[in-house]
Amino acid sequence: MNDKALATAAIERVAGHRRRFDARFEAYFDALADDLGAPPFSRFTPRCLELLRDLSLRGGKRLRVALMYEAARLVTTEDVPGLEEAALSLELLQTHGLVHDDIIDDAPVRRGGASTYYAYLQEFPDRDRTALGLAVLAGDLAAFLSLRVLLEAKAPAELRQALLEVQTRAATDTVVGQVVDLERDFEPLPGEDLLHTVTEYKSTRYSILAPLRLGLLAAGEDLARHDEPLRRYAIPVGVLGQMRDDYLDLFGDESVVGKPSGSDIRAGRRSYAVSAVLAATTGPERAVVERALGDPDCAPETVDRIRDIARRRGVEDRLRSAMRHHAEAASAAAAEWRPFWREEAVAFFEHLPLWGMERTL
User: Fold this and answer.
1) Which structural domains are found in the chain, ordered by start?
2) Mind telling me which residue stretches traverse the membrane in this protein (predicted)?
């Protein structure tokens, strides 16, 4: 197969994993409604589950799920125990992150619909603290469910424990990542190393490394033996993914991204894109950017102006070049897996970053 055919095959595999998982995720929430054990009088608990279900099933690329299943395929094409529950755990943890992200960012929209926090604000317009509390608890519930589903997995006890350890560590790293993500924005102009470190904790460890580790564990592989090769792949993939999100926030199509352009600017986030714009501007242009940073009422016209400034200063092209560099680094890292894993599965990981890069352009 040529590169284009291999990339197409990778896309089709991701889509297939997504279709199968979405059906399983829906069934999980159907069963959970009867299994949670809430008191019969409670009206808030079913509503909490309804909002978690809605957010969980409303879009999402399911790339973590695809990475996990394909990681298992590095070792075997046979069905292995624990994978289904690990996939549910990954996406429940993602739901937790989305709910809490939207509280932190005061974001009204997620995946083309109301965020969980704003859904509660609409239901309790005169009780802001109730809405906030319920949104926090909804996110917490998703996090605990992500661990519970592993404890109840139909797999040997030793494997359940190993899967739980990986996911618990990933969840802890993600919370630390959220903390340092907020800390990053106190830096006037964070350097590249700081941005990369925040990305590693906030997303790489749970979005890339954890799925790889869970899939390999379930397939019976020794993680300690392969830790360094996995990291050499995961770190550039994680940077690519975060850089792509930041790029799309400034340069992307709102109808595709699913949220308004310029949300990082309005929130005052020193993202890869915003930091690149700050580094590239001086004088009046820099003043335009700095005045807009952290202004929740920043007008779309101002975001458009910043976008134009960024393009004139070459920021868009530099971000694209950086993303391609990280995609190629990840692809080269995956190619080194051939001596010890299946060729077909290695090819998937080799071409996936390049496909992710092309989706941005």
Assistant:
1) 3-358 (1.10.600.10)
2) none
